[in-house]
Amino acid sequence: MSSYGFDKPLESVKLPQPTAPKQPEPANMASVLQAGSSLGFVSREASPRRKTGPKRTEPQDKITIAGPKRIIDRLKAYCDREGGITYHAAIEALLDTVEK
Fold first, then answer.
1. Rounded CA separation 23/8 (Å)
2. pLDDT of 21-50, one tens digit each?
């Protein structure tokens, strides 16, 4: 009398049988690393940390400037010529020449 088929006998359900997982073949680690690097994989190991800068001996402040590229490039070139000095050291040296 049921119109949804609940009155029919149940058929047995056949579940898939579990299979043993395949064991991966042991690989030579050097060949694995070579294959990975040839495919472009990069090591996830931590990179060496950079040394911290010198301890500050006086209070610090910060300015952010925007200006013509030619002037900023001149400041960078000056710092490079003077042996890679910092920007604040370059500004201090230029101020010292003006204030004399």
1. 45
2. 777 776 788 888 888 888 888 878 777 776
The pLDDT of residue 71 is above 90? yes
Alpha-carbon distances of 70 from 14, 26, 76, 77, rounded to whole Å: 79, 60, 10, 10
Report the distance separating Cα 85 and Cα 53, nearest Å. Answer: 13
CA distance 4 to 14: 23
Q: Which one, of 68, 69, 62, lies nearest residue 91 by Cα?
A: 62
Q: Which residues of 68-77 are buried (b: 16+ CB within 10 A; e: fewer)?
A: eeeeeeeeee
As given in the structure block, the two tokens for residue 83 are 């042996």
Per-residue pLDDT at 92: 92
CA distance 98 to 100: 6
- Is this model's pTM higher than 0.90 or not? no
Distance CA 70, CA 73 (A): 5
Radius of gyration of the chain (CA): 35
